[in-house]
């Protein structure tokens, strides 16, 4: 398993996917299983909103979680599964402590082109609005907005854990 430390940050219906285990109040699923279609990733947003409300997460933390999960899920669909709409992706929530929350994204994408998102990225010499190209920045965004990432190759797929530390009340991280 490889770990990358960061540089820096009303429950809806969940129509797509299996809901397994629940939070201590038995109201929000701890696991969401999504189909590998970009349009089918939408249930992630109300799920994270419900978790944010249940655990009283500040808006910047909720936003960071949604941004990182969107990037991870989109990458699995586009690159891991190469657009195959008949696959699934599982997202699981774990509260490790009062302030630390971890989201695991698990897929069964083939290993013919393994990709470890925790490996250091080559940094461009200089980036301006005129030189930056759309796309290809997802891993950088995930690193900026999460507190850590861990990647683990599985026998039949991958597991990416994305961790967030909730700031103390009144203090931003």
Helicity range of the residues? 10-25%
- Ranges where pLDDT stays below 50 over 5 or more residues in a row are 1-25
| Average of pLDDT | 79
Q: So what's the overall shape? A: globular
Q: Please name the fourth-level CATH homologous superfamily.
A: Histidine kinase-like ATPase, C-terminal domain
CATH architecture assignment name: 2-Layer Sandwich
Reported by name, the CATH topology is Heat Shock Protein 90
The percentage of residues in β strands lies in 25-35%
**In total, how many beta strands?**
7
Elements, N to C (H/E): EEEHHEEHEE
What is the total domain count?
Answer: 1
Radius of gyration: 16 Å
- Outline the biggest β-sheet: 7 strands, antiparallel
CATH class: Alpha Beta
Distance between the termini: 26 Å
Spatial order of the strands forming the largest sheet: 1-6-7-5-4-3-2
Structural class: alpha+beta
The DSSP helix count reads 3
Key terms for this structure?
27% strand; Heat Shock Protein 90; 173 residues; disordered N terminus; 3 helices; 24% helix; globular; 7-stranded antiparallel sheet; alpha+beta
